[in-house]
# Entry
Amino acid sequence: MGRAGYVKDLRKIAADAATCTRCPLHERATQTVFGEGSAAARVMLVGEQPGDQEDKQGHPFVGPAGHLLDRALADSGISRADTYVTNAVKHFKWQERGKRRIHQRPNTGEIKACRPWLDAELGLVGPRLVVLLGAVAGESLFGSRFRVGEHKGQAREASAGEWHGLVVATIHPSAVLRGPDPESRDRAYEGLVADLSAARKAAAL
Ligand code: SF4
# Structure
């Protein structure tokens, strides 16, 4: 299939996902937030789920964590134009706290239910490198026993559906933002950039 065919199929799958009811998360979220980016991207970044801003705007990584990720990609030498960004879970799971909607971690059933969408994205984009951002992305690809801390920054070969390539796990950018003080946030950010740089080198990008 030519590249135009892959783009068309990606759009078709995104349209199908817009009406997905495979798990209960669609009931309270504003909309499905599907992946976006180049259909020919060599790097796919997989986060956890859309946040409050992403849920409202309908695009992945457009909130504060997305801005931080853009900076970390630039600092690690990965071109944003060469990336496709998505989430392991495509609907926002939240709980009410005052006037705010606070993120809630998706459970194993919800992560599994959403996995076919990620497999479809992997198969159609066919990235050389997948970067798993945080524990939920790790669980989606490798199961609930996967611990990001044990594999952080290490490249390994992996398969998912029709896709085969390199995978590197690191922290989610929101973990940097949650740091209690500027020093710990700086340290976490440097760790994220180091992992992204290691991933880029391992994939010879
Ligand atoms: S979270 Fe995923 S599986 Fe659940 S309804 Fe949304 S798109 Fe479907």
